[in-house]
Recover the amino acids of this structure.
């Protein structure tokens, strides 16, 4: 039979010390960010292209919002 308890010797080398709380917190935060990225881009072959497209769409919307209140480019009423 194998030795399964650390008091029987040899197994004391296998015990892993837990890292300090700050290191553990950082590791947990990195793992959470990684999981969030994976779930965000699940099923997307090229996430960089999606991000570029999203930013471009936001720029277009931003530009449209800035030009429409000035009155240029909108519909004009004509009475006649």
């Amino acid at each position: 039979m194998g030795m399964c308890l650390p008091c029987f010797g040899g197994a004391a080398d296998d015990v892993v010390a837990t890292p300090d709380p700050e290191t553990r917190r950082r590791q947990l935060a990195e793992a959470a960010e990684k999981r969030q990225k994976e779930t965000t881009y699940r099923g997307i072959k090229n996430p960089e292209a999606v991000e570029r497209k999203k930013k471009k769409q936001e720029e277009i919307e931003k530009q449209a919002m800035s030009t429409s209140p000035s009155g240029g480019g909108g519909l004009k009423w004509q009475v006649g």
Notes: The mean pLDDT is 80. The CA atoms of residues 43 and 50 lie 12 Å apart. The longest helix spans residues 47-67.
